[in-house]
């Protein structure tokens, strides 16, 4: 009988009291607040993770997992390429030559870079270009342009596009930039407008001819790796001092640091919703303690221990809080399913890397949400439970 005292009283105190309806209303508001907080946190963290993952995926492709570049006095050539292919057969390599350019069509100008590549090798390291490349399609001075540039300049396949190179050549008493018209032979779409507008790709021989380089000389080598963070360490040990290797993340450190800061800030702000809801738990339990003082005193006089009284109100707060957490998880997961199944929100493709909401709730974030909410519930329940166990039996019964 004694063992069932705590759960019995917890159930009794949770019932609606016609004489004190505000106590029940306060507990209900606490439940709803925690439910809302957990639900919003789950959806928000899934969205943040989804965008983070989508941006990383796109940036990895367009910036390439790893890139070998020369130092100030170094050179990247065919000899180094052959050595790398022999030493690391599990990696894919694509040598390139690049130049900063201005693309011109009529009166419109757009700055960017043009890469000279072997399209067969490039298709192995860049999945975006692989979709736009047809075997044997590209001849000398043919070019592959991004969808954003194509749309801005209103270009079509087999149109001519003028490129103004930053490299100059002497002409009489002055120097003039090199200018060449390339024929458009393909369109790629990375999903990132900045890259689609700035990057163009032509054949390796075209760029070597434009820049006066030998067929065995390159500006760098793009590398595809499934584990770039591990492979970069092995490659650094192998490379001569005249060249270096960089990972795609090294060019985007500040961007992803900002995303992580934004995610942490959002988590803290939304956790405050749960904290505010927990204040309702405190007020609800304190009102219950004040309203039930005579019952608490009577229980203590009949042999109930202060530990049991503390348990009653601690469990009362936990029931309200945990119920809110479970309801929040259910609604949050339902929201994620609805957002991922139905095209409710459509994003502008020229701004975001995807037109649909990317959702990815990690186990780490889910655990932090649940544990954080539970800790807040426990902390908010402890003080009222402690006050209930400190009721003065003689004073209360004398006044009653």
TrEMBL record:
Q: Which UniProt keywords apply?
A: Cell membrane, Membrane, Transmembrane, Transmembrane helix
Its predominant location is: membrane
The residue ranges crossing the membrane are 21-48, 266-291, 312-339, 366-385
Q: Which domain of life is it from?
A: Bacteria
- What are the residue boundaries of the ABC3 transporter permease C-terminal domain, all occurrences included? 268-389
One Pfam entry name: MacB_PCD
Q: Give a Gene Ontology cellular component term annotated to this protein.
A: plasma membrane protein complex
Protein localization: Cell membrane
Report the InterPro entries cross-referenced here: ABC3_permease_C, Lipoprotein-release_system, MacB_PCD
Membrane association type? Multi-pass membrane protein
GO biological processes: lipoprotein localization to outer membrane
The MacB-like periplasmic core domain covers which part of the protein? 28-211
Q: Which PANTHER family match?
A: LIPOPROTEIN-RELEASING SYSTEM TRANSMEMBRANE PROTEIN LOLE
Family label: Belongs to the ABC-4 integral membrane protein family. LolC/E subfamily.
Protein known as: Membrane protein
Q: Look up and give the organism this protein is from.
A: Sulfurimonas hongkongensis
């Amino acid at each position: 009988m004694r063992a069932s005292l705590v759960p019995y009283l917890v159930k009794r105190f949770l019932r609606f009291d016609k004489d004190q309806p505000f106590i029940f209303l306060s507990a209900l508001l606490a439940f709803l607040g925690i439910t809302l907080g957990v639900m919003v946190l789950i959806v928000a963290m899934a969205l943040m993770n989804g965008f983070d993952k989508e941006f990383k995926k796109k940036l990895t492709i367009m910036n390439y997992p790893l890139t070998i570049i020369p130092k100030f006095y170094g050179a990247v050539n065919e000899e180094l390429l052959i050595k790398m292919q022999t030493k690391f057969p599990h990696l894919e390599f694509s040598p390139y030559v690049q130049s900063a350019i201005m693309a011109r069509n009529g009166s419109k100008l757009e700055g960017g870079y043009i890469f000279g590549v072997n399209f067969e090798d490039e298709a192995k390291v860049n999945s975006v270009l692989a979709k736009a490349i047809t075997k044997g399609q590209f001849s000398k001075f043919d070019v592959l342009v991004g969808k954003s540039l194509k749309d801005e300049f209103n270009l079509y396949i087999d149109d001519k596009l003028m490129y103004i190179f930053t490299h100059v050549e002497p002409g009489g008493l002055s120097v003039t930039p090199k200018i060449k018209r390339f024929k458009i032979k393909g369109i790629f779409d990375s999903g990132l407008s900045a890259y689609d507008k700035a990057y163009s790709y032509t054949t390796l021989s075209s760029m070597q001819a434009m820049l006066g380089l030998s067929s065995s000389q390159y500006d760098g080598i793009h590398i595809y790796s499934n584990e770039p963070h591990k492979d970069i360490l092995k490659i650094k040990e192998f490379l001569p001092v005249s060249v270096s290797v960089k990972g795609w993340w090294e060019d985007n450190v500040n961007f992803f640091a900002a995303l992580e800061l934004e995610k942490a800030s959002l988590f803290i702000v939304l956790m405050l919703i749960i904290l505010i809801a927990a204040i309702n738990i405190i007020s609800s339990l304190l009102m219950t303690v004040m309203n039930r003082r005579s019952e608490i005193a009577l229980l203590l006089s009949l042999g109930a221990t202060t530990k049991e009284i503390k348990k009653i109100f601690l469990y009362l707060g936990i029931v309200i809080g945990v119920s809110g957490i479970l309801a929040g998880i259910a609604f949050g997961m339902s929201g994620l399913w609805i957002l991922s199944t139905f095209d409710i929100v459509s994003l502008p493709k020229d701004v975001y890397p995807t037109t649909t909401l990317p959702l990815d709730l990690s186990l780490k974030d889910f655990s932090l949400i649940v544990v954080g909410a539970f800790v807040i519930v426990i902390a908010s329940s402890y003080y009222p439970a402690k006050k209930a166990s400190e009721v003065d039996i003689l004073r209360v019964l004398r006044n009653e």
